[in-house]
Specification:
Low-confidence stretches of chain A: none
Strand order of the largest sheet of chain A: 3-2-4-5-7-6-12
Helix content of chain A: 25-40%
Oligomer: heterodimer
Structural class of chain B: alpha/beta
Order of helices and strands of chain A: EHEHHEHEHEHEHEEEEHEEHEHEHH
Radius of gyration of chain B: 17 Å
Distance between the termini of chain A: 25 Å
Strand order of the largest sheet of chain B: 1-2-3-5-4
Mean pLDDT of chain B: 96
Number of domains of chain B: 1
CATH class of chain B: Alpha Beta
Number of helices of chain B: 11
Mean pLDDT of chain A: 97
Chain lengths: 313, 274
């Protein structure tokens, strides 16, 4: 698999945000006191007059961001994902203002990939929470190239967006000419026997797993757009293979697994397995260590797929 | 101080109270007593000499914006915007709390109708209004309830001029009627705290035209600090005197003709006293 270096989703975001500052005079960026973690810091340093440090005040930050967008600004509010749990009512009320707002909520430090900071810092429920709010487009891009493309798309189109980012470096494997589209999933690898539907920085692990399963076995579908969801691509693949495995760094409740299951149940009931966190609180550890411990790494995907296919080691 | 004489403001206030009683009686739900406590505050604001809006262009970029953070007071907002000619008042009576009407049980943002923000959960509108003010060239007002400042998030707004930056075009009007839904609410040292955080704090009688007019003039004069006007009001003011200023009527419409008439008699009695 050809890769183009390693970059964390938050670093790619920070670079793209800085570049967007040149392009859009009306761009305003906020952070709840985590700009050196979310990588909004370069923007803050370059354009302090267009940056608001809301402080350790997530509800206030989302309220302010909503107000700025109601005043006609293009707004990006950044935070570590777990802390946005404080702001749920403000996020809901933001979306209730109507479709003319232009508000992007960018969350870094999602899932167990945050690592040693421990369970209190692992946000395993962000996709579920954001899916609950009508009006929010929920995006979880899978590598640095895609983060930049996604940000470009949503900076040029009004609406309320949730952009799921992450902390560790991950390989870039999307060719720069592959365009990001809201509501479109991408078949990254074709296969006949099993469909692996993956999101965010777990897509790379899904591709590694497909390689391990052998040529033409697993079809890998990258889902960077959770809401809206690409029903057609996922259902067509399920019809072809008859088996679906979902992969996410998120609990199975309300995330990609249930999103996919909902679509399949309604149009083509298909046996499913999941690679996701159970409904638990997690522990400290290095990201790779935790992925192994909780069964959300490439080896775990392979194991789940083999068992599903009835293949014994 | 005001664009119209005090005698006209009085007439508006009387008619507005009658309309509120009738509207909420007919809707059979809604927050009458909260709206009654805001009659003078809201009218003083929209008829103050500095307030600018254009009801034929609700989204006019030259407007002063009014955010309603205590969303349950929306009946007064709906009736005042009708009075300002954003839409005919009949539309409010026909649509109040009906499916998909512009006049929901709490405000749904609709700039054409002069409804600046969707509200509901308390403490959110104050932050949106402050954020709006940071990027809005004209004045921004926010009407909030005193009980709303029991929410930590609203209380945190006091620190915004200090932590963020002072919005000199921002005025918060606090409806300090002292009664929340199921209990009295005491703002305690809220005004002192606001002073410490560099708000221009005024504490006034929220049913006194002159006091309201002076405070609103001061609000537009001081361009350096955000303003925090504590308007002491009486919940249910000018309605049924047996209910005004007492717990137990929050969100309760007049239950029957007799209760409605008691409210209306209160309006008439107050009018005769002037």
């Amino acid at each position: 698999m050809q890769t183009f270096g390693n970059v964390s989703l938050r670093e790619a975001f920070g670079e793209a945000l800085l570049a967007a500052g040149e392009q859009f005079d009306d761009l305003r960026v906020l952070d709840a006191g985590t700009s050196n973690s979310t990588m909004s810091e370069p923007f803050r340093k370059k354009w302090p007059e267009r940056f608001y440090t809301a402080g350790i005040n997530e509800p206030g930050m989302i309220g302010l961001a909503t107000g700025l967008s109601m005043a006609g600004r293009r707004v990006v509010a950044c935070d570590m994902s777990i802390f946005l749990q404080h702001a749920f009512a403000h996020l809901t009320t933001a979306a209730r203002q109507g479709e003319d707002l232009h508000l992007i909520v960018a969350a870094s430090h999602t899932g167990i990939a945050v690592g040693p900071d421990g369970g209190s810092a692992h946000d395993l429920t962000d996709l579920a929470r954001m899916r609950l709010i009508p009006g929010f487009t929920v995006l979880a891009p899978w590598d640095g190239h895609q983060v930049k493309q996604a940000l470009e798309v949503i900076l040029n189109r009004k609406g309320c967006y949730y952009l799921r980012l992450n902390r560790p470096k991950v390989p870039i494997f999307t060719a720069p000419d592959v365009r990001f589209e809201i509501g479109k999933a991408v078949i990254l690898r074709e296969g006949r026997e099993i469909s692996i539907v993956a999101t965010g920085d777990k897509v790379y692990a899904a591709l590694e797993a497909a390689d391990m399963l052998g040529d033409g076995v697993a079809e890998v579908i990258g889902v960077a757009s959770i809401e809206p969801f690409d029903d057609a691509t996922v259902v067509a693949s399920a019809i072809r293979t008859g088996r679906v495995v979902t992969v996410e760094d998120h609990i199975f409740v309300g995330g990609l697994y249930e999103r996919t299951a909902g679509v399949l149940a309604a149009s083509h009931p298909t046996p499913m397995r999941r690679v996701a966190l159970d409904r638990i609180f997690t522990t400290s550890g290095e990201p790779d260590e935790l992925a192994r411990l909780y069964g959300v790494d490439a080896a775990a995907i392979v194991e789940v797929c083999r068992k599903f296919l009835g293949v014994s080691d | 101080m005001f664009r119209i004489p005090i005698s006209e403001l009085d007439a508006h206030a009387r008619q507005l109270r009658r309309d509120l009683i009738e509207l909420i009686y007919r809707a059979r739900s809604g927050h009458l007593d909260t709206s009654l406590s805001l009659v003078e505050v809201y009218l003083a604001l929209v008829y103050s000499s500095s307030y600018r809006c254009d009801p034929s262009r609700g989204d006019w970029s030259g407007r002063d914006a009014i955010f309603l953070s205590e969303g349950h007071a929306c009946p007064i907002q709906y009736l005042i915007n009708a009075r300002l000619d954003y839409y005919p008042v009949e539309e409010v009576f026909a649509g109040i709390r009906k499916p998909h009407s512009p006049f929901q049980g709490h405000t749904q943002r609709n700039l054409k109708y002069g409804l600046e923000n969707s509200n509901g959960s308390l403490s959110i509108g104050v932050w949106q209004a402050y954020g709006f003010a940071l990027e809005w060239p004209q004045d921004v007002y926010c009407i909030a309830g005193d009980g709303e400042f029991e929410e930590p998030s609203a209380l945190g707004l006091l620190a915004a001029p200090h932590h963020l930056k002072p919005a000199g075009n921002f005025t918060l009007l606090l409806n300090n009627n002292g009664l929340a839904q199921d209990a009295a609410t005491d703002i305690g040292p809220l005004a002192d705290a606001a002073r410490l955080y560099n708000w221009n704090v005024m504490e006034i009688d929220g049913h006194d035209w002159a006091a309201l007019g002076e405070a609103l003039q001061e609000a537009v004069r001081d361009r350096q600090r955000p303003k925090f006007i504590v308007c002491r009001t009486v919940k249910g003011q000018g309605g049924d005197p047996a209910k005004a200023g007492k717990l137990g009527s929050h969100g309760k419409p007049p239950a029957n003709e007799a209760e409605r008439n008691a409210y209306l008699a209160g309006v008439d009695a107050a009018g005769e006293g002037r």
